[in-house]
Amino acid sequence: MKPQILLISSFVSIVTANWAKNINYRSPSEHHPALGISIHKVVKRNNFQSPWDPAKLNFTHGIASGDPYPNSVILWTRVGPSSDNDKSNVTVSNYAPMYNHDTEEYVSVSQAPICVEYKVALDKNLGHVVDSGKIYTSSDIDYTVKVEAINLKPFTTYYYQFSVCSSNNKSPLGRTKTAPHADDDVTKVGLAVYSCSNYPFGFFNAYGNPVRKDSVDYVIHLGDYIYEYKNGDYGWGQSIGRIPLPDRTILTLYDYRKRLATYRTDLDLLASHQQFPWIPVWDDHEVADNTYRDGESHLNNTEDSFVTEGGMAVEQRKMNAVRAYFEWMPIRQVEMDDNLRIWRSFSIGKLFDLIMLDTRQYDRSITDLYWNTDYVHIISQDAGRTLMGSRQENWFYNQLTHSAKRGATWRIIGSQIVFSRINESLALGNQNPLNYDSWDGYQANRNRTLSHLYNNNIGNNVFLAGDSHASWVSDLVWLGEKSYNKETGEGSIGVEFAGSAVTSPCPYGANISLATANNYSTWLQTANDELQWQDLYYRGYYELHISPKELTANYFGLPTVVSRNGWEIPIANFTVKAGGNRLQRPVAGGVVESGSLKGGKVVESNRTVDTGNGTWFVSNANLAVL
Ligand SMILES: *[C@@H]1O[C@H](CO)[C@@H](O)[C@H](O)[C@H]1NC(C)=O
Ligand SMILES: *[C@@H]1O[C@H](CO)[C@@H](O)[C@H](O)[C@H]1NC(C)=O
Ligand SMILES: *[C@@H]1O[C@H](CO)[C@@H](O)[C@H](O)[C@H]1NC(C)=O
Ligand SMILES: *[C@@H]1O[C@H](CO)[C@@H](O)[C@H](O)[C@H]1NC(C)=O
Ligand SMILES: *[C@@H]1O[C@H](CO)[C@@H](O)[C@H](O)[C@H]1NC(C)=O
Ligand SMILES: *[C@@H]1O[C@H](CO)[C@@H](O)[C@H](O)[C@H]1NC(C)=O
Ligand SMILES: *[C@@H]1O[C@H](CO)[C@@H](O)[C@H](O)[C@H]1NC(C)=O
Ligand SMILES: *[C@@H]1O[C@H](CO)[C@@H](O)[C@H](O)[C@H]1NC(C)=O
Ligand SMILES: *[C@@H]1O[C@H](CO)[C@@H](O)[C@H](O)[C@H]1NC(C)=O
Ligand SMILES: *[C@@H]1O[C@H](CO)[C@@H](O)[C@H](O)[C@H]1NC(C)=O
Q: According to the lineage, what is the superkingdom (predicted)?
């Protein structure tokens, strides 16, 4: 049946609103027609009998939800004639010819829009529907569907489903949850925190475990959701049957879409998106390694860039990555006219504000690109260097102030890179002992942040970080400025929880042994006063359970990711009391299962594991080789 279109001109705005409901038609550049998609022209393509047979369309990559507000949430799916991605490579230069302005006809049948309906309900049977609607998608946006479900109630669980219009062809059923209202008293919120999921390095078991336990409300992803490499350049996908497509370094819009689509076939990732609303931000690899405002580690942004990476200018590549990311991730673009802006915040009742930063793509000064480490070391103290750009940085400080003023108990800051100073001279040598690609390379920016917190008496700060493929738990301190007692934690103004990777390998050696990893951890823990626990061995994630009186962080280590399994070890638990502004002593209760704990012990417990052919009693080290 032909989808209904009103052609009377006075109704055009209503029609447009209906089309514009698929946010991906407006994103990522609503007011820059040359960068965007003309909905007007897509609408015209619908002025024909729909060529689509609903039975031959597929919901190819599951469903997802994200960016919960008290009254709305973003819903996502993809429905198309094939699981392959659209090859149009929409860019400034090559999008326009796809539409014939003279005849006002669409170029091919494959460009005709597809009509999709969605329903949001309080129950799994979708009996008590609270929001529903009809929207369109098309090849222009890779057949993705992104819609804001509205009229919802705060902190409430909802179920949702998409279907092809006038058919019985339905997507899987999704579950989601709105945020509490900013003024609500909330007693408990759980978050699962992730980073660095690299498809050819392993199965995304970490995403599936909170689904199996049903242990959290929302998922936070601090970035490196995908990696841009060709498998052979970084990854052992061959040995585990996980080659990310396309099998090359990704550059074009098609490439980024295809890579996201490959990742979105992992069953545990699909399950997490189906059950939890996500709040993600990108790190560097959503575009390329060690990106900054003007480049990345493989591109010097010289004319040679065109030679070294297939004739693609660095800003075109970034736009491709950004467009595909907004198409595929269930998130809001809070400023439709700023296509690089992903930094945004969420008020979760009176309990906490979640401030998600972009310390990578938006506006950061040059970083360590491997050939310039000495130089970045020298300039790492320059006052003019910024991780975020002045616009984002001012916003960040205002958010911290506003959060404290409104009386939110906690401020949770989603950074990509590790905030605390980490002396790694054991591995890096004494000449350049810090990681200049993290906050350590932008010390004035870090000092400005700490100064804002101390000078305005803003406490209960919890920094989150990913990126490093290892776990680092620290008191949040301003070394050299404020006195700090590493035994009691006195002088600290909060804590930092940096988490390990979903699959990306240990930075001190892929396939490192537990003994060697813990040896390095001991050195790191000893060399850094504020670093209370460190672990290099385990891939994994952590859960934050937040209440008005205290916050706990539970770290889970995955014994192995070269097979799909649900095994995990609770390797360390931390408590922070409201008003404490430091890790509660004894840190981690004095005992962890791996890594190195300041003033505490590492005790491995033995456990039983069902391997599928019987129950086995194993130690942590043996679990890894099962
Ligand atoms: C849709 O999915 C079904 C089941 O996976 C498959 O059999 C069918 O070939 C797919 N159709 C298309 C057009 O890709
Ligand atoms: C889009 O990019 C893909 C992958 O690089 C390429 O194969 C295809 O020819 C491109 N399509 C257009 C229309 O440029
Ligand atoms: C980038 O420039 C530096 C300094 O000129 C050079 O050492 C390095 O090899 C260049 N890298 C690439 C990928 O061209
Ligand atoms: C890092 O630690 C090593 C060994 O303790 C020490 O010699 C060096 O001075 C430290 N470097 C910095 C920048 O703190
Ligand atoms: C940061 O603060 C520390 C401690 O006061 C100081 O030693 C350092 O010089 C400051 N660095 C910059 C770049 O402001
Ligand atoms: C590490 O383990 C992976 C997966 O088992 C394997 O493919 C790879 O060859 C190993 N690498 C080394 C250096 O041993
Ligand atoms: C641990 O480190 C010490 C020196 O710091 C070294 O002698 C020892 O061999 C290391 N052990 C392992 C298992 O790496
Ligand atoms: C962490 O907490 C969990 C759940 O309470 C518990 O099962 C586990 O033993 C704890 N782990 C450690 C290392 O204390
Ligand atoms: C775990 O089992 C090993 C081997 O059976 C044993 O040596 C070790 O003491 C056990 N550890 C604990 C904490 O029970
Ligand atoms: C059962 O599983 C264990 C652990 O994966 C393996 O070592 C053993 O060989 C398996 N036994 C059989 C009979 O498959």
A: Eukaryota
Residue written as tokens 């005790």? 603
Both ends of the chain: CA-CA distance in Å?
Answer: 54
Reference 491, options 505, 506, 479; nearest CA is 479
Picking from 388, 413, 251, 269, the residue whose alpha carbon sits closest to that of residue 328 is 269
Pocket test for ligand 1, best of 52, 57, 58, 265 (most atoms within 8 A of CB): 58
- Relative to the alpha carbon of 447, which ligand is closest? 5
The answer, yes or no, to whether any atom of ligand 10 lies below 6 A from the CB of 578, is no
Instruction: Give the separation between CA 476 and CA 120, rounded to whole angstroms.
Output: 42
Closest-approaching ligand to the CA atom of 518? 7
Are residues 276 and 173 part of one domain? Answer: no
Pairing of β 105-106 and β 99-100: antiparallel
- Give the closest residue (by CA) to ligand 1 atom 12: 82
Q: State the pLDDT at residue 96.
A: 36
pTM: 0.92
Residues 6+ apart with CB under 8 A from 110: 81, 139
Q: What angle do CA 395, 400, 406 make, to 5 degrees?
A: 115
Statement to judge: residues 469 and 531 lie in one domain: yes
| Structural domain total, the chain | 2
- Residue 532 within a domain: yes
Q: What is the pLDDT of residues 121-161, one digit of tens each?
A: 999 999 999 999 999 999 889 999 999 999 999 999 999 99
Among 508, 511, 512, 519, residue to substitute to test ligand 7 (most atoms within 8 Å of Cβ): 519
CA torsion through residues 563, 504, 601, 583, sign: negative
Domain that holds residue 311: 189-625
Query: Of the bound ligands, which one is closest to the alpha carbon of residue 535?
Result: 8
